[in-house]
Design a protein that fits this description.
TIM Barrel; Immunoglobulin-like; six-stranded antiparallel beta sheet; 24% helix; globular
């Protein structure tokens, strides 16, 4: 697909998808009007020709906010002699814009002055209404810019920007399904994919690859087509956790090129409600590398520097993490460059449970304090295992242990298998298999983690605290398949009971009276227990479970008359 055709498709999508977005011509010709929190876009066109515009120039716009504070926003090369700017204003009012080009002699690009008039957002999209994500003051979960709590329930679409997940049919179908089930985040890689050689045809979209051969320059047409998908996610209430690349691209491309890549991502997508994930498998060398120890060190040092670069370059200050082989903290020299810890804890079905619980609890004790969540564990169906009961267990055990959110994944979606053509072999010579993405999307675990989120969303879930000693028996290092308990002080108690075979004893119950019910995590149904009688020692023994399976017992504090 030609650059001009893909650009026309993108602009048409911008116009159709949401009236919240504004697009204008050259900034020096007039004012741009936008809604608060929504991406506004305008362009600059140079009469002067450059032999290598992507590498020869850098263009920024210095934006003066109504408060007088200045923000420096990077522009992106859109192809030919055009550079474009995207910006999401954090407050309504009158803004002043001034372009700043590395070629100060180019008056089309340097010193152009204009204005931006921002009006309050009046739509219903929570991402635009409440603002981008940030880490909450308790350093345990996420919230919007205006303080509204944000429940991270992620899905894993690593290769979701390639054409194997076709636009519009496939991408829109999967988005609709995930929104309906309650997902709020999509983890997606920005063109430099895992499990394939660079420039493998499986990684192309309708306009080719993200970079030209040899990483000579970015391919704007690739990102035009990616933009359509990224905007669709945002317009449907999904935060994109943008994974810049897989970690081994850093030694392949070098630090300078990787900084260009990240500057481009920030310029293209920083105005959207996104979270930055520096890389996938941050310190894992390329599968066939002959210098693996050296590569791992290059990657750890490099991602530390890149984290600081992203922080300094992004005017919107989106949260930063890195996808690890174990913990994001281990992928950088200095964990303070990260905003939250992302974990990967295994794909071995029930055998992955001990490492999952121990890695999560260990990270929660470390400094600096930050939200901790699992970013990859036990894709549903991988190796013909990790089925829905494991997905329920991983969600509930991690949330009740203090996780700041949870990310699900399904084998077949992350690599975008299609019915006509499975993904096939990885460079290491093996195939992960799995069904086609549309079949994987209907595996029952995805709906069941959504039901869990729906239950918690009835309460002040962001105040949930681990309280393992509230129940007996309880999980321990000798048996991870015993109950997990958490409490929202003064509001509710939640206990996840993996086996549903042994009656549960509650201890230390305060702030009663309570009414209780069983929640079936497989279908969302409830069975009333009723008001409970707590004895003088603040204890209560729950009745027998309705059937032998996993259950959640919920105790709601009953308000006194």
């Amino acid at each position: 697909m030609s650059e001009s055709v893909s650009r026309r498709i993108f602009l048409k999508s911008m116009a159709v998808a949401s009236l919240a977005h504004s697009t204008a011509g050259a900034a020096g010709l007039g004012s741009v009007v936008a809604a608060q929190g929504c991406p506004a876009e305008w362009s600059y066109t140079s009469a002067k020709q450059y032999s290598d515009p992507f590498n020869d120039l850098e263009l920024d716009v210095v934006i003066t906010l109504p408060s007088g504070r200045e923000e420096r926003v990077p522009a992106f090369w859109a192809g030919g002699t055009t550079w474009r700017v995207r910006y999401a204003a954090s407050e309504s009012g009158h803004y002043r814009l001034r372009s700043s080009c590395s070629d100060s002699s180019n008056k089309d690009l340097h010193g152009q002055v204009s204005t931006l008039d921002v009006v309050p957002y009046v739509g219903k999209n929570g991402l635009y209404k409440h603002g981008s994500l940030k880490v909450a003051s308790d350093r345990r979960h996420f919230e919007h810019a205006d303080g509204t709590p944000f429940f991270w329930l992620g899905d894993t679409w690593w290769m979701g920007l390639c054409k194997r997940l076709s636009w519009p049919d496939d991408f829109q179908t999967l988005t609709t399904d995930r929104v309906r089930k309650g997902f709020t985040v999509v983890q997606i890689v920005a063109g430099l994919y895992p499990d394939m050689e660079p420039y493998d045809p499986r990684g192309a979209n309708e306009a080719g690859f993200a970079w030209e051969e040899g990483y000579a320059a970015i391919n704007p047409a690739y990102f035009d087509m990616a933009d359509i998908r990224m905007q669709y996610l945002a317009d449907h209430g999904l935060v994109a956790c943008v994974v810049g690349c897989w970690g081994y691209f850093l030694p392949l491309m070098g630090l300078k090129k990787m900084k260009q890549h990240w500057r481009y991502l920030i310029a293209r997508w920083g105005a959207y409600p996104v979270v930055w994930c520096l890389a996938g498998e941050g310190t894992m060398p390329y599968y066939l590398s002959k210098t693996q120890e050296q590569d791992a060190q290059i990657q750890r040092h490099g991602w530390t520097e890149l984290a600081r670069y992203v922080r300094a370059t992004d005017p919107h200050q989106h949260p930063i993490t890195i996808h690890p082989s174990s913990s994001a903290r281990d992928c950088v020299d200095d964990p303070s460059v990260l905003d939250f810890d992302m974990l990967q804890t295994g794909h071995d079905d029930r055998k992955s449970v001990p490492n999952t619980i121990e890695t999560l609890n260990r990270s929660l004790t470390l400094s600096p304090k930050m939200p901790v969540l699992i970013g990859e564990v036990c894709y549903e169906g991988i190796q013909e295992a990790s089925r829905q009961e494991v997905q329920r267990f991983l969600f509930w055990s991690s949330i009740l242990s203090g996780s700041g959110g949870h990310t699900y994944g399904a084998n077949g979606i992350w690599q975008v298998n299609t019915r006509e053509k499975p993904y096939g072999m990885s460079p290491h010579g093996h195939s992960w298999g799995g069904p086609s993405w549309d079949i994987a999307a209907q595996l029952p675990g995805s709906a069941q983690v959504g039901l869990a989120k729906l239950l918690l969303s009835r309460y002040s879930w962001w105040k949930l605290e681990p309280q393992p000693d509230l129940v007996a028996p309880r999980w321990s290092k000798s048996d991870y398949w015993q109950p997990y308990a958490g409490q929202i002080p003064g509001e509710a108690v939640f206990v996840f009971c993996p086996s549903g075979m042994e009656a549960i004893q509650f201890n230390g119950l305060n702030d009663g009276p309570y009414k209780a019910f069983f929640f079936n995590p497989s279908d969302g149904s409830e069975q009333t227990i009723g008001e409970i009688a707590i004895d003088a020692s603040h204890a209560w023994k729950a009745p027998e479970f309705p059937i032998f399976q996993d259950w959640v017992i919920v105790l709601e504090r009953k308000l006194r008359n």
